[in-house]
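Illustration: Helix-turn-helix domain-containing protein.
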Amino acid sequence: MRPTLTLRHYTHDLIAHSHDHAQLVFGLAGRLDFEVEGIGGEICPQGVMVLPFSTHHSCGSPRGSQCLVLDVPDEQWVMQSLGEHADASRRLLDQPARVKLDARQGQLVNWLASGALDDPLIAQQGAVLLLATLNGQPPAQASARRLPYGAFNAHIDQHAAYPLQVADLARLADISVARLHARFVAECGLTPMDYIRTRRLQMARGLLRDSLLPIGEIAARVGYGSQSAFAAAVLREFGCSPGALRRLDNRR
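Result:
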């Protein structure tokens, strides 16, 4: 595999995958939100995201963004092409990181993105130059702050009877929907909608146990438009019907 430099446009659509090569994503315009191994970050102009071999990552851009992407071939290519920079480049590609470009590095990225990629030789040598110039650049610190689950729970509890959107939780966390989705999966193994559904059903279980409310009213209080849909959800979540769950919990 040869190195490839490509211009890519990202949208609000979430991308979540890994690939069998390392990758560097250089910001050109807009903001690209990343989630890499449970840590969030964003790439703007003058910024780079380092994605090592086989690292699972998610990204999305709420308002659209453009990036220059360098797909780095295997370690053999690094050793053959980077000369005395090879060891430093290998270390750079070992860990996920965000890197801030200086003015000269930014000029090189912009020049390559402006049309030089049409020449295969320039594109190949440009890939080597980009990788070599990053050696010695300190990575930026990525925030590892966990999502505000307390605020999420309070919002879900308060509005459980009404339609709830993932965008509501994203606003509470002050991140994009794409990043929120990736953070939920990384931190608790659930999608945001799974989390909302589970919270609602736990509320319903409490009402079944601690109140004499009819099952239909409990269903409405936790956002289900019909008792049958509520019963099906309870069966999937707890393995029994709402009535059976009420009897089971009250015997304990």
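Reading the tokens back as a structure: The radius of gyration is 24 Å.
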